[in-house]
Amino acid sequence: MSSIDPLDARILLALDDDPDATILSLARTLGIARNTVQARLKRLEAGALRSFGQRVDPAALGYPLVAFVSLSISQSAGDAAADDLSRIPEVIEIHATTGDADMLVRVVARDTAHLYALTTAMLALPGVQRSSTSISLVEQLPTRMRPLLECVAEGRR
After folding, report:
1. Against a cut of 0.70, is the pTM above it?
2. Contact 23, 36 (CB under 8 A)
3. Directed axis angle between helix 6-17 and helix 34-45, to 10°?
């Protein structure tokens, strides 16, 4: 993955301010050449930018419940378990972790009965030994990158 420099960060902040901005309007706003903006965006799309789908609110798709499932995984089954988990559409994020659990899985569900069915399905996967589930009551701070982009744009890392 390529590193984002201050100019890249300024371009991304301008897009955050106006997602419909054209390359030409970004170039004018930032006072840089249109070709520079175009080349930078192409490079960012190839590595640093995540998919558009990550901006979709799961609740709008009918999955208002968010939960975090901590999983204990057999030492030899980590990668296979992650592959199996990734085949479950409601699994939207998986992290290998240190501590009591081996993986932290963020899932979305229609309701608590659906969540129960999901955790039961996870426990049935080869290598998954134990789970602990925490339901999110409210998202107090959505995932955000703007403050970090501002730091990079200003040369503060």
Report:
1. yes
2. no
3. 90
